[in-house]
Q: What sequence folds into this?
């Protein structure tokens, strides 16, 4: 998917110079098939996003409904987005295999 290029996206207060929020969007996809998660269990998976660096902002979109799971994501190492799934429900949740998309804002 590669990188989306643009000059910058930012905010500007009246009378001041714009402050960039980010200057590029890096894209990655992966087919993920998380293991069945028991109640109160967690699982992790990774998505390769070339150019991602620790501290960058991350947006992840699963290819299926999370069925009650809680998802967080972060850049854990160069070029690697780690997705963490947590099951706060009372029963096991088994997500189907699907394509997950990650966007990293730099």
A:
């Amino acid at each position: 998917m590669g990188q989306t290029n643009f000059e910058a996206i930012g905010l500007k207060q009246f009378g001041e110079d714009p402050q960039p929020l980010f200057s590029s969007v890096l894209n990655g996809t992966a087919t993920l098939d998380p293991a069945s998660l028991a109640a109160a269990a967690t699982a992790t998976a990774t998505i390769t996003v070339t150019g991602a660096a620790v501290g960058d902002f991350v947006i992840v979109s699963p290819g299926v409904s999370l069925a009650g799971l809680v998802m967080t994501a972060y850049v854990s190492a160069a070029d690697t987005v780690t997705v963490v799934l947590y099951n706060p429900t009372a029963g096991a949740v088994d997500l189907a295999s699907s394509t997950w998309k990650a966007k990293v804002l730099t």
Q: What stands out?
A: The longest strand covers residues 19-32. The CA atoms of residues 33 and 97 lie 4 Å apart. The chain has a mean pLDDT of 91. Strands lie at 2-11, 19-32, 42-48, 57-61, 70-77, 80-86, 98-105.
